[in-house]
Design a protein that fits this description.
Arc Repressor Mutant, subunit A, mainly alpha
Amino acid sequence: MTKLDELDLKLIYLLMDNSRLSISELAERLSVSRPTVKTRLEKLEKEGIIQRYTIKLNPELQRAHNVVALIIKTDEPEKLQEFEEIIE
């Protein structure tokens, strides 16, 4: 595994706090160029140091046993009430 330098660590900490930061935002916060950030990210991903980008849930939701997101599209809105009653 490659040794991480100060820039790598700062980049990782920024992404740990907010994995949705763009390359431009990361470059600005780190005072480096966009190509530098892109190259560093590619290296960190290739070496398996960064394995995926994820979200941080509200602590209340983290305590829940099950968190489900459901999107329903229907041509019969009146059926939604029936569906709501069934899943409750």
